[in-house]
Structures are given as C-alpha cells and as structure tokens.
C-alpha cells in the first residue's frame, strides 16, 4: 500500500467559492480513487495540531485561523505514485508559481488561501490520513 495513497483537504477558500465539485472532478479525471472523504470543519485547536510542523513559521497563526475559518473536504486518494502525482496535479504552493491547469493555478487565491493541501511524503500521508479518518471510514475500492 505504501506509495499508493495521499491525503488532501479542499480548503475553506475553495469550498466557500463553490469549487468542491470541479476540484473533485479534476482529481478523479487524473486517475485518483477517493477511498475516504469527509465534509467537516476544523476547530482552531485541531487546525493547529494538524499544522504543528509549521508552528515556528511566521505564517502559522494566519494558517490556523484560515484553516478553521470554514468547512473543508478531507479525503484519502489512491493511485500509483500518489504523493508525487498529486503534488504535480495541485501545482506549487504559491498559485502565482503553479503550472497552468493545475488545481492551484485554477482555484487558489494566494499562497495562504491556496485551495488544496497535499501530503508531502508517504509518511505524512499516513499520519494525516489517520488524523482525520478511522479505519472503518477508509474503503478498499
Ligand atoms: P499546505 O500545502 O496546506 O501546507 C502548509 C501551508 O502553509 C501551505 O499549504 C500554505 O497554505 C501555507 N503557507 C505556506 N507558506 C505560506 C506563507 N508564506 N504565507 C502564508 N501561508 C503560507
């Protein structure tokens, strides 16, 4: 299973702008299977915990406020080479640098409100998936 799954969130900016459907369609069309999915809202505490790795960064407070500001869609995605392929699909963190046609180029507003999250390693994909989903909420399709 290692290497075949990644974790994503559609962030409050993209949810609020009505882009859930278009983003999920692009994810499916790129060959990812959705094996778990949840429409939810992070508390400030949970957002802080999820992004604890960035706690020392100057943008941490802003990031936590933003990620707890509205609903998100959390999902686990499956595909060969999932982590790397999904990062290619979403584009650079800063949408100004994201390749044309990528999810962030299409839907992100700026580096903070950047439409989607994608895990940066297999290890973090597993940690982030377990943060949001119980085993009974993950399906082998
Ligand atoms: P994400 O992939 O979810 O992981 C960490 C997030 O921190 C990142 O997307 C951005 O939304 C946010 N981030 C990274 N750099 C900055 C920055 N310079 N200013 C504000 N937010 C940032």
Account of the protein in words:
By secondary structure, the chain is α+β, with helices and mostly antiparallel strands. It has a single domain, classed as Nucleoside diphosphate kinase-like domain (Alpha-Beta Plaits, 2-Layer Sandwich), CATH 3.30.70.141. 39% of the residues lie in helices and 17% in strands. It contains 7 helices and 4 strands; from the N terminus they run βααβααβααβα. The chain has helices spanning 12-16, 20-29, 44-50, 60-67, 82-90, 103-107, 122-132, and strands at 5-10, 33-40, 72-78, 116-118. Strands 2-3-1-4 form a 4-stranded antiparallel beta sheet. α3 (44-50) packs across α4. The longest helix is centred in the C-terminal third of the chain and has 11 residues, at 122-132. The radius of gyration is 14 Å and the shape is globular. It starts with a strand and ends in a 9-residue tail after the last helix. The model has no long low-confidence stretch (mean pLDDT 97). The structure holds adenosine-3',5'-cyclic-monophosphate. Adenosine-3',5'-cyclic-monophosphate (CMP) binds at residues 54, 59, 62-63, 93, 111-112, 114, 117.
